[in-house]
C-alpha cells in the first residue's frame, strides 16, 4: 500500500494512446512509477490498463491506469473527476489517500 495525495484533471488523449472523458474511471500515476520498466513507446507501458484501488477514510474507488502525471510526487494519483468525486469534492483540490495495485 502506498500513501500520497489525490488530485484530479480533465481527460483527453492519454499517454497510453487512447482518449477518455471526465466521466471515465481512470487515473494517472507519477512519471517515475509509470515509466518503470517501460519501453520507449508509452502506449506499450506495462502500467497501461492496470487497476488500482484508491482509498480515503471509509471510501474507495477502483480505477484503471491510463496516463502518467509528470507533476505528481512518486505516490500521488491524478484521478478523473468522476473518480475523484467518489472520494471527495472537486473544491478540495487535493487530499491524502492510500492506494494499492489490484
Give the topology:
Blueprint: E1 2-8, E2 26-30, H1 31-35, E3 51-56, E4 59-69, E5 77-79, H2 81-87, E6 95-101
Parallel strand pairs: 1-5, 2-4
Antiparallel strand pairs: 1-6, 2-5, 3-4, 3-6
Description:
- By secondary structure, this protein is mostly beta strands.
- It has one domain (2-101): Beta Barrel (Barwin-like endoglucanases), CATH 2.40.40.
- Helices cover 12% and strands 38% of the residues.
- The chain has two helices and six strands.
- The protein has helices spanning 31-35, 81-87, and strands spanning 2-8, 26-30, 51-56, 59-69, 77-79, 95-101.
- The chain has a six-stranded mixed beta barrel with strand order 1-5-2-4-3-6.
- Strand 3 (51-56) and strand 4 (59-69) form a beta hairpin.
- The longest helix is centred in the last third of the chain and has 7 residues, at 81-87.
- The termini are close together.
- It holds the Pfam family DPBB_1.
- This is RlpA-like double-psi beta-barrel-protein domain-containing protein-containing protein.
- Keywords: Signal.
- It comes from Protomyces lactucae-debilis.
- InterPro entries: Expansin_CellWall (IPR051477), RlpA-like_DPBB (IPR009009), RlpA-like_sf (IPR036908).
